[in-house]
Design goal:
566 residues, alpha/beta, Rossmann fold, GMP Synthetase, Chain A, domain 3, 9-stranded mixed beta sheet, 5-stranded parallel beta sheet, 20 helices
């Protein structure tokens, strides 16, 4: 890392304690529960987190032991994470929507000894697989009113830790003296667009260096309010919401739930927020009006009077979406990174962005493009490796460079453009190569298309599965009969004809072999619950194409009632 970028701390626990002492009575986290707003002040944050850390140490958790955290976003997630780090343990946070069997794989693979869970639903998942987790010594549940035989209530656990905290002062000091930037902080399992998830090992230095480089580049102050809603079990929100706010000292305002997201955003009136393109696309579609000026006014109302900028990551941001926000006076820029890079490799920001790119490389991070177009990266944020998987580690960490698997280009000004996914290149029977993500980005720029998946590996032409934006589509076709279900609309000739026109218009500037010859309409969206999207809303292409293999085959035979061919 460049000498001009100051080091915040030796480890994340040290950073937290330093900031808690500095900001004491100021608000650290603002959250809502059951309709009521609460503020967690730095001094109370410190009291709760150190008590929970003492509880872990008193329970026998050793330096470097793995502790699991299965929870939706909530204030206890943040406190438990800090407690794990303060105890010198390693946080293993499976995604809350995962099944019991998926959670069992991660907990068992990482050798988790203690586990925090949120709700009765999450506790039930653990109980279902508990016999297969012999290393798991204890479970703490946030929502338990009283401890039970196989689980301790969060309140009891913290209270017990508070009673033991003073007597463990020397043990805390010993552990913190041994912790450093090279120490393992977390194992985050990639949700994976294909195959079994891999445990990404990130050190305190990986995470701290990413925050340090971002803060050294982007102006910030403790008076900011950051709105936070992306899952903390995903690296994007974990680093750029949670740890960035710890380092900046600003208020972190939590959304209560996905269902209350827009209301929470309105009430929080943030200065900035991170999101995924899908969120910004859906908000734009909901704000669509007869004129750009009216659309812009609606967008500004959604994000509030204090918003300074919006950041997108996790997936490609369609240019028309970014342009619509900028035309409304809202700066929407995008960044790029992976779990393996903690996560940020490049990002745009106020005063330094270029549409269609993911910004310039982060200070302290080197990026180069390999001869086959793959993006390679190196820097202090690159992971230690994959947990218990040296073969997979050796595959992506070669000669000091991390091989991202993404394809890209660096322009003359140093801005990075993502052009596709190396392993997702489609090769047609003609030998022509197609980058499906690029074409999908063009299609998603149309307001009538909500989701899409391109198919065509080994075929003579491309096809697509299309999920319409039904609200927009109905506005475009006011003459449709009232009362038709989305299944019925999927088969309506007017709907198919309109989508055919939209697809052709979106792809008008691409090569002949990149045209979509036939498509099928999916009445309902692809979802995380259906295993079709990752928790960060990335398309699990192989899963979707396997699930709809019969329908795709009918596209090539021209037999589907949902098919509309060119």
């Amino acid at each position: 890392m460049s000498a001009t970028i100051p080091m915040l701390a030796r480890h994340l626990g040290e950073l937290f304690l330093r900031q808690a002492e500095r900001y004491g009575p100021r608000v650290a986290v603002r959250y809502r529960r059951h309709g009521w707003y609460y503020d967690l002040r730095w001094r109370d944050y410190q009291d709760e987190a150190t008590a929970a850390a003492a509880g872990l140490i008193d329970a026998g958790v050793q330096l470097g032991d793995r502790v699991g955290l299965v929870s939706e976003n909530r204030v206890e997630w943040l406190v438990a994470d800090v407690a794990i780090l303060l105890a010198g343990a390693v946080n293993v946070p499976p995604h809350a929507p995962l099944t019991a069997r998926q959670i069992e794989f991660q907990v068992r693979d990482a050798g988790v000894s203690w586990l925090f869970v949120s709700t009765a639903e999450q506790l039930a998942k653990v109980r279902q697989v508990r016999p297969e987790l012999p290393a798991l010594r204890g479970v703490v549940a946030f929502d338990l009113e009283e401890s039970v035989a196989d689980a301790t209530s969060w309140r009891s656990f913290v209270q017990a830790g508070r009673r033991r905290r003073a007597g463990l002062a020397n043990e805390f000091a010993r552990r913190h003296a041994l912790l450093g930037r090279e120490s393992l902080a977390t194992i985050m399992y990639t949700s994976g667009t294909t195959g079994q998830p891999k445990g990404v090992m990130l050190s305190h230095g990986n995470l701290l260096s990413n925050v340090e480089c971002v803060l050294a580049t982007l102006p910030h102050s403790a008076d900011e309010i950051q709105f936070s809603w992306l899952p903390y079990s995903h690296i994007y929100a974990r680093t750029m919401d949670h740890y960035r706010s710890l380092a900046a000292g600003n208020v972190l305002a939590l959304a209560e739930s996905p269902e209350t997201l827009l209301a929470d955003l309105r009430d929080a009136e943030p200065t900035h927020m991170n999101g995924v393109p899908r969120f910004y696309e859906k908000v734009l579609a909901a704000c669509a009006a007869a004129t750009p000026a009216e659309t812009g006014a609606r967008l500004r109302q959604v994000f509030g009077r204090r918003i300074h900028y919006l950041m997108a990551g996790g997936a490609p941001l369609p240019d028309p979406v970014a342009e619509a926000y900028r035309s409304a006076g809202l700066l929407l820029v995008q960044g790029y990174g992976l779990t393996e890079t903690a996560p940020v490799l490049s990002f745009g920001y106020p005063g330094c962005y270029k549409q269609g790119t993911v910004g310039r490389p982060l200070r302290g991070v080197d990026i180069r493009i390999a001869s086959d177009g793959e993006i390679l990266a190196r820097g202090p944020n690159v992971m230690l490796g994959y947990w218990n998987n040296p073969a997979a580690t050796a595959e992506v960490l070669r000669d000091g460079w991390f091989h991202t698997g993404d394809l890209g280009q660096l322009d003359a000004d140093g801005f990075l453009r993502i052009t596709g996914r190396k392993k997702e290149l489609l090769v047609l029977s003609s030998g022509k190569k197609v980058v499906p993500a690029f074409l999908e980005g063009l299609l998603l720029s149309d307001p009538c298309i909500d989701q899409c998946v391109i198919a065509g590996e080994g075929r003579s032409y491309l096809t697509a599965l299309i999920v319409p934006n039904w609200a927009q589509l109905r506005r475009q076709l006011p003459g449709l009969p009232a009362g038709l279900s989305e299944d019925e609309l999927s088969q309506h000739p007017a709907v198919q004809a309109l989508l055919r026109q939209r697809i052709d218009a979106a792809l008008r500037d691409v090569a002949s072999w990149e045209q979509v010859k036939a498509f099928a309409i999916l009445p309902r969206p692809l979802t995380v619950a259906g295993d079709e999207l990752t928790v960060s809303l990335k398309l699990r292409r192989n899963v979707v194409l396997t699930k709809y293999a019969e329908l795709v085959e009918r596209l090539y035979q021209g037999e589907s009632a949902l098919v509309h061919q060119r």
